[in-house]
Amino acid sequence: MEEIVIAALAKIAENTVQQVGRWLCYSCHYKSNMEYLKNQEMTLRDAQKEVERKVKTASDNGDEIKDNVETWLKKVDDIIKKLGGGEEEAESRNSNPSCLNLKQRHQMSREAKQMVGNIAKLLEEGNFVGGVSHRPAVQDRVTPRNMDYMNFDSRISITKRIMEALGDANINKIGVYGLPGVGKSTLIKEIFKKAKEESLFDEVALANVTDNPNLSQIQEEIADMLDLKLDPNCKTERVRAGHLRARLEKDKEKKILVILDDIWKRLDLEEIGIIPSERCKVLLTSRDRHVLASEMVNEENSFKLNALGEEEAWNLFEKMAGDFVKDDLNLRNTAIEVAKACEGLPIALVTVSRALKDQKNSKIWKDALEQLTRSHPKHDTEMWSPVYTCIHLSYKHLGGTELKSLFLLCARQGYYISYRDLLRYGFGLRLFDGIHTLDGARNRLEYLVSKLQDACLLLQSPRSSEEFYMHDFVRHVATIIALDDYNMFVMRGDGGQKAWLDVDLLKRCEALSIHGGDHIHDKNLNEIECPKLRYFYVQCESRYLKTRSSSFQGMDKLEVLSLRNIQLSSLLPLANLQTLCLDGCELGDIHWIGELKTLVILSLAGSDISNLPGEIGSLTGLRLLDLTDCSKLKVIPPNVLSSLVKLEELYMRNIKVQWEVEGPNNEGKNASLVELKKLSHLITLEIDIKDANNLPKDLFSKELERYKICIGHMRGLYFWYRGEEAGFSRSLHFKLNMSSSQLDFGIKMLLKRTEYLYLDESNSTNSVLHELDREDFQQLKRLHILRSWHLPELRTSLKNLKVLIVHNCEKLKFIFSSSIARGLSLLEELKIRRCNNVGVIFLKDEEDGIEEVFCRLQTLVLMDLPKLMSFLSTRETNLEGNDHDLQVPLLHHQLSFPSLKTLQLAGLPRIKHVWSKEIFRFPNLLKLHVARCENLKSLFPAATMAASLTQLKSLEIRDCGVLEEIVQREDGMDPTTRILFTSLTSLSLDGLPKLKWFFQGVRTLESSSSKELHEQGGTLFGVDEVAFPKLTNLLLRNLPKIKHVCSKDPQTILRFQNLQRIHISKCASLNSLFLASIGTCLKQLKQIRISDCGVLEEIVEAEGGETVGRMLVFEFPQLMMVEELSTTAVVEETKKSGSRGAARGKTIFSFALGRRYKLMVMEEMRTMPVVE
Q1: Where is the AAA+ ATPase domain positioned along the sequence (predicted)?
Q2: How far apart are CA 113 and CA 120, in angstroms?
Q3: Would you state the pLDDT for residue 1024?
Q4: Which of 206, 225, 390, 626 could lock onto 259 through a cystine, CB 3.0 to 4.6 A?
């Protein structure tokens, strides 16, 4: 027991000694511990500073700081705070150790020991071998610079189409191209963002290629976004490409999108390390469509980004310029004009709006407008410099002098640039290197034009395939380049006398274009001195500028002279002149023209000549002669045309020459068509031959490549069919009094190659189409048949037909059989008019199966077909019956029109139903016009049918005498049914005497106050069943049953929030347009026109409870015009009560001052006080 106690006491003593020892150790080592802590603290501070320096550098580079680094810095900060915060306090802890008692020394020494351990751990953790940061997630690094720009419908639409293509497993390369500065980079950044957000791809990488591509840099950018570290010491691009390829192909389950922005020339994707596949797709952007094609991007997978429309452009400009543009009405009109001058080009809109942001001085805005619209803007200004640089870069990358010269030639033309003019001027300027024939020049021009179009520097005109135009900013830049680098000057019509060039500039000038020279004095033109001039163009609009023979004296280098609407008495011999165009000029005697021996191209189109001078026959080098529209021309001397042995192109349409007929009766006063057979080089011919009896046998040779020939008198239809044939290089117009057996070999040969055929068989005993061989129409694309008694029963001859027009064919009972219809797989446009016996369009052989033979049809017009009962019928159907109660829809449910965009129906009295309830196959319909369908009671058989037309933009219904409703209500219809016309912008209802409402849904029916109201109707748009969120134009005319446009439900007007124009006429029962509670919602309203509405008293109706005599005022900030004609009192002063007959409260409205408007009211308005 004693031993146990002794042992225990010994153990206690030992532990006590150890504890005392440790306690004394802390006290004894106080100084060294505190010194060590000081050193460690200084080391930690140095480490903190180094890490903070790296963090700042990484942040400045846009990197994200790692979470553990931020945690470490916080821990360090906490320790330093515990230590006292500053270095001076750290020194003070060691300065007076003798003042501390033993207990304090022990405590502080122990804490120092512990702190040293903590610091040591932090120092170890602070060794960030992998760096303090990482590149941010790609979706955070790549965002559109302007989200307002991406919210426009045009950008949303193309984004949607690109995303759909990216989601297609069969597509691995996609391209986007467009004008410089149109917003391609912004668009693809939105694509980048969406591809990640919608989980379409697991990883997305983007690299900017630029006009001077660096493969190593491109590889680095892609690798960086994929978190791949390429060896910086590796100088071989091929090795780096291998590493990148391995990374892209590493995970077979991952989908990767690589975006290459701003490509200028073909890239070898494999050299970069990219192999496109279903799992790894590539999106490329370029200014040049040809570059995308060189990357094997199919045309259908290349998306063109167009400039913004006027409305979208203004919205972007307004947001960027600042709110004051909305509020300051004095500036607003000028701001709108400035925005218009930017022509929808985003780079211009953004640059100009930023330069003018919050600028309230109207003079500065007017100066900006002048800078943007002047003929020769200065490119070094704040507004012009970015735009100029962007477009000039595209010019620099045009390959070769030919392309650049053509680009500058285009800039010297008018707004619309004619292919014809480019050929004639370009050939005269010897622009086409090594080309000596017009045919060769055409081929070269076709190539060069396509290159400019691919580069988006030249755009296709909406008017004709043979015209182009330049974006205004592209033209401005080209004009600057032409003047600065080549002494080429362009003067537009608004310049006037002040814009006339100074003498020194004229002496240097090599090309001078004057458009709209009405403001130029005759003396300016007659005293001009331009010894270096090679190209001279003058065009007057409304008057004839007079010139003298001396006007062109000293212009020995002149190669191209084009005068339009000029009085020209004579012309001095110009030794170098190649092209002379005197279109629309007053010429008088032009015998002097024979002295211009170097002429290659001569155009007298539209001039007043009546006799072609025989001296033209001496111009044996002539390759083109144009006499089009010389309506006074009656005489062409014999042997003049046959003397032009090098002639390649001859144009003689709409002239009055009476061609001589070879034989004993030839008087020798006029040329004979036989002369044309001597022109062995002739490959282009345009001619009208009014009398087919004047046709020599085999006049037309197989050498003709382009022709527009009219045989037979068309009685004033010349300009009409000339418009229709635009875009076709080979067209024939026949008004025949012969059968096919009388057609000679030359005409039959032309028929086989014709693209557009207009055939009037009113005087023919047999149908030419029916008798010709099956293979005769292989190239026919447009066929217009007039007064034919039979259409061809040919299975394959019309396989390339795109447009078919059948007009006034009285004997036809149907248009197609199944065999013909199935041979028209490319048909895009079908128009049937005034065929009084046609009962069906498509006569089907068998009963079953949905017909998809018209899968490419985009336009369908059926007009004035009094016996038409249905589009499709079988042979068993009785088409000649008179059963008006037969419930046959026009468009059978077995038909499918997936591409149809335009549907026009007019003059179809037997049609009671357009659609059957089962048909919903019109997904792309944009325009629907219905007129004079006398038995049509409703247009859409069901709400679901109407709601399926999601793309419909224009709906017009007129002169349908029994139409009661637009959309028919079905029994048992879902009470929540709502029709949303999501895209409709224009609605026109005209001449519908029995129309009660647009659509009477369940809620409208329930809200009707009585059965009588339900039966009679009166409110056009009910409670909330129909909505038009994009409607801008509303026309209501001749609707005698309509009393109110909208119901009294305040929600109604929310369906018209974008309405801009209202035109109401001859609505005899209409009391008012809108309630006071909803009138204020029409903020976009710009125009109201009202006429012949006899009982209409108020545009905005005062609601119940309004105090008599109260003046109600509404602001319509966009309103520009209020026009009221022959209506008793639409807007009047509030009448005071107390007179005989209770006075009713009237409402007026005000609109923003400073806007253009027209106000026409009756007598009661004259004393009304002005409301502002």
Answers
A1: 170-303
A2: 11
A3: 61
A4: 206
Q: What CATH architecture does domain 138-305 belong to?
A: 3-Layer(aba) Sandwich (3.40)
Contact yes or no for 257/205 (Cβ under 8 A): yes
Residue-level pLDDT at 744 = 72
Angle at 931 between CA 925 and CA 937, to 5 degrees: 90
Q: 757 near 773, Cβ under 8 Å?
A: no
What is the SS3 string spanning 943-964? HHHHHCCCCCCEEEEECCCCCC
From CA 41, how far away is CA 34, in angstroms rounded?
10
Q: How many residues does the chain have?
A: 1172
* CA atoms of 834 and 345, how far apart (whole Å): 46
CA distance 392 to 458: 14
Tell me the per-residue pLDDT of 769-785, one tens digit each, with 9 for 90 and over: 665 655 667 889 999 98
What pLDDT, in 10s, does the model give residues 2-30?
555 455 544 554 554 455 455 456 556 67
Q: Which amino acid is at 52?
A: E
What 321-324 contacts at long range (C-beta under 8 Å, 24+ apart), as own/partner pairs, is 321/353, 321/356, 321/357, 321/358, 322/357, 322/358, 324/358, 324/360
The conformation of residue 662, written as its DSSP 8-state character, comes to S
Where in 888-1017 does DSSP place strands (E)? 902-906, 927-931, 938-940, 954-958, 965-967, 979-980, 986-990, 997-999
Q: Which helix (H) or strand (E) holds 58?
A: helix 30-60
Looking at mean pLDDT, say which of 189-203, 1013-1027, 1133-1147 comes out highest.
189-203
CA count, 13 A, side-chain hemisphere, 259: 28
Contacts of residue 1123, defined as CB under 8 A and 6 or more positions apart, other chains included, come to: 1087, 1088, 1089, 1090, 1091, 1158, 1159, 1160
Neighbouring-strand partners of residue 965: 938, 997
Window from 22-26, 57-61, 862-866 with minimum mean pLDDT: 22-26
Task: Report which DSSP code applies to 307.
Answer: P
Q: What is the rounded CA–CA span in Å between residue 372 and residue 476?
A: 9
Q: What are phi and psi of 927, to 5 degrees?
A: -130, 130
Q: 1096-1117 in b/e burial notation, b at 16+ Cβ within 10 A?
A: bbbbbbbeeeeeeeeebebebe
AA letter at 718: Y
Q: Is 849 helix (H, G, I), strand (E, B) or coil?
A: coil
Element (H, E) at 690: none
Instruction: Quickly tell me which residue has 């984004």 as its tokens.
Output: 159
Q: Give the tokens for residue 1027.
A: 């909505």
**Strand intervals (E) in 137-250:** 173-178, 203-210
| Tokens read off for 316 | 């972007």
Range from 207-216, 369-378, 1088-1097 that averages highest in pLDDT: 207-216
Domain 398-473, CATH among 1.10.3470.10, 2.40.160.210, 1.10.10.1080, 3.40.50.150: 1.10.10.1080
Residue 907 tokens read as 């003059």
Kindly give the pairing relationship between strand 535-539 and strand 560-564: parallel
Given a cut of 50, whether residue 1148 has pLDDT beyond it is: no
Backbone angles phi, psi at 1070, to 5 degrees: -70, 125
The Cα angle at residue 887 between residues 885 and 892, in degrees rounded to 5: 150
**Which of the residue ranges 187-196, 898-907, 935-944 has the most confident prediction, judged by mean pLDDT?**
898-907
Q: Is 482 exposed, middle or buried (0-12, 13-18, 19+ CB in 10 A)?
A: buried
Determine the Cα–Cα distance for residues 691 and 689; give it in Å rounded to an integer: 6
Distance from C-alpha of 421 to C-alpha of 815, rounded to nearest angstrom = 41
- In the prediction, which pLDDT does 487 show? 92
What are 384-430's pLDDT values in tens digits? 778 888 888 889 889 889 999 999 999 999 889 999 999 999 999 99
DSSP 358: T
Structural contact between residues 510 and 534, judged by C-beta atoms closer than 8 angstroms: yes
Instruction: Please give the Cα distance from 632 to 1081 (Å, whole number).
Output: 60
Pairing of strands 256-263, 203-210: parallel
